Fold this protein.
Amino acid sequence: MQTSIRHNKPIALMVCWLSLMVAGFSACQPSVMNYTLTDRLPAISPDYTAITLPPNIAPLNFQIDEQGEDFVAKIWSANNDTLTVHCAGGKIQIDENRWKNIISNNKGMKLCIAVFALHNGRWTRFKTIENQIANEPIDSYMAYRLVEPLFETWDQMGIYQRCLENFDEKAVMANTMSDGNCMNCHAFNKNSSRTMMFHMRGRWAGTYIYREGKLEKVNTKTDQTISPGVYPSWHPNGRDIAFSVNHIAQTFHAMAEKKVEVLDTISDIILYDAVRNEVFSNKAFSTKNRLETFPSWSPDGKWLYYCSALKPQPFRYDQVKYDLLRVNYNEETRTFGVPDTIVSSQKNGKSVSFPRISPDGKYVLFALSDYGNFSIWHRESDLYLLDIENNIIGKPDINSNETESYHTWSSSGRWIVFSSRRTDGLFTRPYFCYFDSDGKAHKPFLLPQKDPAYYNTFLKSYNIPELVTSEIELTPGDIANIMKNQAKDAKYMSN
């Protein structure tokens, strides 16, 4: 079947239409009449070209950024499923059901997009966009905070969840429902929404822990520890949580190229037993001359990875550089071995933050910046990958000239989500990339939205995106029911 595109009357061009058909196209070469072919790819935003996408992702709606009075996008697969979207304004919004049918039925195959533009009475066809549909789905949900870009206010903030298979977004808890309290540090055990936690700061402060269908509010601060726990990591047993305890300072730079500096003046690591409501620490993490933070468990629970820096004397924030360490853990005795340095700041001249271990235990994804531990405010921050078995550090081709940080793995280990400022240098947006069985990270793509111009006017940052396998069961009402309760004080146990 041949499809002919013709210039209709202007009044008809105001209508966007979509059709689904099965045609005898082969591979990525449909036949369309009456156009001039150009050898360059079309300019579209977001950039959904040459990417690998999950077979369960929401439609990749996009704006055609080319001159023209009329536009057509033809989408098809190797199985000859074809979808056509026609819109005079160039805003390509794809029917969700028809999109789902195409990508779910063509796992492991190419997804092609041909863009046509009518300008000055002549149609132009651009070079075909060829994307790849992965075999492995992405976890169905993503949890994240929406915050002001400079973290300067608490009055408009919340933890949200988005179904990645469509455009549905819900508040887990927003501070408009919590008397203006701040919420942060949400974390999940093995990407499960049924074992999770977050902190609330302010009048109703506490650590909110949800496990085995029960929500509790606890106070992890004890007389023997310097602060409540932050930067959590669940042990795979779903019972123990590693936290850092910190004295945190925040300052604002006077220089235009730098905005915020967040640093620890004191920090240690503790373990919290959610069953016994007990806190314990280890002398390896309680050294006065070092700063320990960002604990992260290996998937087998036998190793705790964390960042550690020598405190400079006199203290200078730009001289603090963190190593990546790991230490063996015996779950039965709750004891640790001798820490070992995995990535040395002295050797590479950079500072490590946010180590995240892949579900198969083979890789550590982490951020490197010039100094400090709050890489989200360092423009030079990039993501690096450590092959643990071979002790090889590589820089995956997913970075930009702006900040990359706040990264997590999917439950399968085949997808990564991270926050990036590459869009405009100010707001962090969530980007996804496929991580194949050879250890290669593919080109990242932006979280799709129903309106492809969404990010042009959305004035909040996505903070700590976490992939989860199912919808979070907790509602704002569930949290509000215990919010005003007195937090249970954790007991400190010597170890």
Notes: The helical segments are 10-13, 96-104, 345-348, 454-457, 476-483. The chain has two domains: 3-133, 141-489. Residues 141-489 form a domain with the Neuraminidase fold (CATH 2.120.10.30). Residues 1-15, 17-32 have pLDDT under 50 and may be disordered.
